[in-house]
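User
New here, help please:
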Amino acid sequence: MTVTVAKEERVVLISGCSAGGIGHHLALELAAHGCRVFAGVRTLSKAQTLVDNPLIEAVELDVTDDASVDAAVAYVLAATGGRIDILVNNAGINCAGPTVEIPLSQVHQVFNTNFIGLARLCRTVAPVMMDRRQGTIVNVGSVSGYTASPWFGYYTATKAAVHAYSDSLRMELAPFGVSVVVVAPGRIKSNIVDNYTETILDGNNTRYTMARPAIEKAVMFSQTEGATPASQFASVVVPKLLHRSPAAYITYGDASSSIWCMYYVPPVILDYLLGSYFGTHQLAKDLQSPSLSSPATTSVVVWVALAAAALGILYTFF
């Protein structure tokens, strides 16, 4: 049955709203701002903590499945008299490990979820917004879309793709009155690691056995002490999304500014900084690599890196 939606009440469809994740908290915050929220989840039981809110309704939505996307969008449009004012593409999965050893089946899965699934929803919802000459599409990227790090090659590739796709989409939809926003979270405490169950290394065939501790540390990087709570992230981001003219990029969360600055750091310095933190330099030592920098070179690189970081911070804030 179609329900009349008050003119001032914006209709929001969000993907990836399972309990504990960013989408879950975005749904709660949007509802707190008076929006009518349709929270997409692959399994309805994962949205039990949301449905007590009278402004939130759970919708079965698997972004990797055409039929599921079509059915979810059709349901929302039927329930609201043909309206979706804001689409939030939040569904995503993690993918970590040595890039050359991750099975292609897993690569297909992460691209299908993080990028193709996002495009699938955009292709379905955008025409509705275009015909109404209004709407906002929010694509959740990542600061890793600005700067890649070891062990997350495919995940960061999907997020960089989201950023590039959104840039094109923003310009193409602007004539129709539709805004496109990229939200790039920093280190946000969420359930993304809880949902990551794939094997990090390829059993006995791996050449990265000595790097296992570094890879496991990297997987937990976004969830360690100091990470921004997802509820706090949502409380800061949602008012920006609801602005009459939202910014093209909203970057927020622990370490987001420093990671953004690294985009402008020369590769030789960036490789040193990230290689030191994520363990590729230690792996080179363990493998007795002849390409390892000498102590004198390392010292120079450290000082240059510090100078570049300082310049980046000055550029960002002043």
The chain has two domains: 11-254, 264-318.
